[in-house]
Amino acid sequence: xxxxxxxxxxxxxxxxxxxxxxxxxxxxxxxxxxxxxxxxxxxxxxxxxxxxxxxxxxxxxxxxxxxxxxxxxxxxxxxxxxxxxxxxxxxxxxxxxxxxxxxxxxxxxxxxxxxxxxxxxxxxxxxxxxxxxxxxxxxxxxxxxxxxxxxxxxxxxxxxxxxxxxxxxxxxxxxxxxxxx
Length: 181
Hints:
This protein has helices at 10-21, 30-41, 46-56, 60-69, 89-93, 96-106, 150-161; strands at 81-86, 120-125, 137-139, 143-145. By secondary structure, it is α+β, with helices and mostly antiparallel strands. The protein folds into 2 domains: 10-69, NADH-quinone oxidoreductase subunit E (Arc Repressor Mutant, subunit A), CATH 1.10.10.1590; 81-161, Glutaredoxin (3-Layer(aba) Sandwich), CATH 3.40.30.10. A hairpin with a 3-residue loop joins β3 (137-139) and β4. The protein is globular and about 50 Å long.
């Protein structure tokens, strides 16, 4: 096990202070501070959560409560890439469940959704808010991949395996005037 020093750099502290300054109550800066800690350490151990609490000067229990509530914060070590496929009603009806099953098969995932090679973690997402371009996948809490199909799933996995970024995919809004009641 690595020996990790749980400290923020001066620039990370400055960024957290900028977030604190934006709000009338410093507790409101907990989410961006947790994000900074997770980006730095890869996940939020109790030591990382304590660091956030100390840096913001708020109770550990408050920071832990926020970190525990939101699924975007990882409370255990995770593989490098998280692939979340929306399986909510709309995406589920148009192939989200099938795409998640194909993704897990393609990466040879175990029962926890983790790939055999240790690079990927998959899970279903309740809703990613892009119903008109589903099924959809969110890659590592960042990029969306719209209109998923087997070819796109395979392409995303292979790009990530090569260390390539998933490019931003602009999606035009649907013309709402052509939708009938």
